[in-house]
Task: inverse folding
């Protein structure tokens, strides 16, 4: 794992998958606009209609597509349409930004090595949901966020980078979530920039940064 640094990136086509308000999407949009990521967000795809992340995409004049999982007869049919839509935008990178669907291994496998996810815990701790609550219940002194490559294992792909926050006695689930979210908005664009600049690579199930295994 590595801590964040500022780098330039080469141009790349990025597709972002969301399910909600899209705050991490906004951080990526802003980073692209500022030149921190010299790639292009080619599309934003949501599995839920009417979420604010779609409004963020439209405001930024990014194609916004809804593929409502409830419209499909089972996960396989939904994922087939999702994959078809992703591929239509010819992405170099797929970014899961609050995409709240568990993906089958058959879906993930073709994208292994070019799909990233952000998870609100210091992986391998607290895979899955309710990470802030679990950190508080267990009396953790530090908590944080991880960015990792996506593999078939839920929240189990190789970790690329993490940011830590201190857990105060006064913290609530909501306050801890806000602390972690602030770190998410800094870390995710940086990791995306590393990938787009080809400093970050995936080989044989491992993450490499500047040629060194993480």
Result:
């Amino acid at each position: 794992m590595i801590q964040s640094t500022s780098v330039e990136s080469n141009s790349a086509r990025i597709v972002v998958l969301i399910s909600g308000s899209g705050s991490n999407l906004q951080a990526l949009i802003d980073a692209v606009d500022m030149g921190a990521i010299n790639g292009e967000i080619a599309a934003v795809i949501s599995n839920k209609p009417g979420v604010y992340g779609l409004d963020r995409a439209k405001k930024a004049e990014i194609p916004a597509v809804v593929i409502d999982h409830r419209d499909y007869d089972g996960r396989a049919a939904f994922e087939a349409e999702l994959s078809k839509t992703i591929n239509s935008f010819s992405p170099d990178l797929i970014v899961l930004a609050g995409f709240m669907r568990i993906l089958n291994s058959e879906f993930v496998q073709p994208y292994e090595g070019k799909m990233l996810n952000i998870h609100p815990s210091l992986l391998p701790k607290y895979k899955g949901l309710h990470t802030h609550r679990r950190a508080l219940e267990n009396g953790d002194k530090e908590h944080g966020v991880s960015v990792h490559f996506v593999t078939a294992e839920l929240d189990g792909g190789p970790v690329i980078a993490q940011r830590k926050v201190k857990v105060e006695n006064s913290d609530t689930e909501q306050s801890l979530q806000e602390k972690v979210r602030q770190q998410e908005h800094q870390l995710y664009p940086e990791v995306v920039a590393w990938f787009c600049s080809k400093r970050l690579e995936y080989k044989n199930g491992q993450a490499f940064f500047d040629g060194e295994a993480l």
Remarks:
- Strands lie at 13-18, 40-46, 64-66, 93-96, 115-119, 142-149, 159-166, 200-203, 206-209, 212-213.
- The chain has six helices and ten strands.
- The radius of gyration is 17 Å.
- The domain at 13-120+147-162+184-206 is CATH 3.40.50.170 (Rossmann fold).
